[in-house]
Amino acid sequence: TTVYTKEVLEEIQFGYVRRPTHKSRQYERDLYETCHHKYAVLTDGENGFAVLNDCKYGLSAEDSRLSLTLLRAPVAPDMRADRGMQQFTYSILPCSGPFVYSRVTEEAYECNVSVSASEFKEGCPEGGFGACPVVQERSFFRLEGGHGVLETCKPAFDRADGVVVRLYESKGCAGTAILSVPERVRQVFDCNMLEEQRQELELREGKVRLAFRGFEIKTLCWWFRETEGKGAFAFLGAGCLPMDWPEGKSGFADGRKGRVCAVGAQGGKDGEALSENDSGHAGQGGEIPADTDS
Asked: What is the pTM of this model?
């Protein structure tokens, strides 16, 4: 290409590192191949391009050229590596202007995370997701401002009614972001990586203001409000999020697998699964009322 720069930006977990594109010293010559994650960028500050991929992590950068290692044939540790048919995706993304204003990070995530859709309808036949109209569309989280990325969402380690989210600043720039959370969240805490609470954050109209340093990682824990007749929340597998359920039941919308996990029947123990007739799993006789969140 015609983009000449002394450094390449290579993504790692929760940020990126700068590595040289020249071979002036022995140290640079030893970097004939380096590891990276979803993207690598060459930019001169005004123009540039990125190479995105979904599963290939070996990269060579020299002057204005990027080379992505597609297949390997090593002797050790596995002499049978990469044999047979291989399937992968890579793409080239031109960008103009400073890297911090580009959509490289967003496009890299979209290249790696496939789109999933969940469609529900009362009385939907088994396996009939494609034929069912969408009852309600809802976003559980929204992050506005800055260059923050919401990377992880999982159940809290020691509380059934808690959720942990992990965010990071992706461009190496200090800034402020606004995180919108579900309506039923009652408290939000700033925590360390061990999920130990450090301080409570102000929750105003369902939004939390977050101040990031460059490449800073934040871990937040929040607790959901419990209403009468509902036990503590429990998670039935990754990807399940709390939702309102009629008649004193709690449910979790699983956006990745297109299902609703129903737990905590009224009068039952916390986290007790419903009977087969009450199951909220679509395709197993469950029904999704039109007035519930999905």
From this structure: 0.70
